[in-house]
Amino acid sequence: MKHASRHLIIASFLFCCLLMLGGCSAKQSAIRQLTSLNKELKYDSDDYTLRDWNNALGEFKQVVGKLEKCDLSSSERTEVRRMEGECVGYLVKGAGMTAVRTVFSIGNEVKAGIEGLLDAIIGGR
């Protein structure tokens, strides 16, 4: 009986260790994902479409959700919040600028179409 009890204690200890390692791994993975997204938005998002920005926002929400479940140290939490703030800034600025470019692009196309229509009507073709 003592032998079985000892195995149960050892098995429980090993299970707890695995859970802690899994949590640590998930935390580090989420922090790496946020770091990667932050760098991508900062350096590689100049040609993003509205769809790209929407996908980036979805990824941001996903990684923030993962990080909310992690037990972060004070310094980790500070760094994560800094990167989250930067990501939000890039998302708002980038998506806004892309939307403005899209609207002006559509506006110019519509304007050109109207001018073509008027030329055809007034030109008497």
Using brief descriptors, characterize the structure shown:
about 120 residues; mainly alpha
Give structural notes.
The protein has helices at residues 2-43, 50-68, 74-122. By secondary structure, the protein is mainly alpha-helical. Mean pLDDT is 81; it is low at 14-22.
Summarize the structure in short.
Helices cover about 90% and strands about 0% of the residues. The chain is mostly helical and about 120 residues long.
**Tally of strands:** 0
**Helical/strand content category:** mainly alpha
**Helical region count?**
3
Terminal residue distance: 102 Å
The overall pLDDT, averaged over residues, is 81
Estimate the helix proportion, in percent. over 70%
The biggest beta sheet is recorded as: none
- In sequence order, what are the helices and strands, one letter per element? HHH
The share of residues in extended strands comes to under 5%
Flag low-confidence runs.
14-22
Backbone shape: rod-shaped
Backbone CA Rg: 26 Å
Helix and strand topology:
Elements: H1 2-43, H2 50-68, H3 74-122
Helix pairs in contact: 1-2, 1-3, 2-3
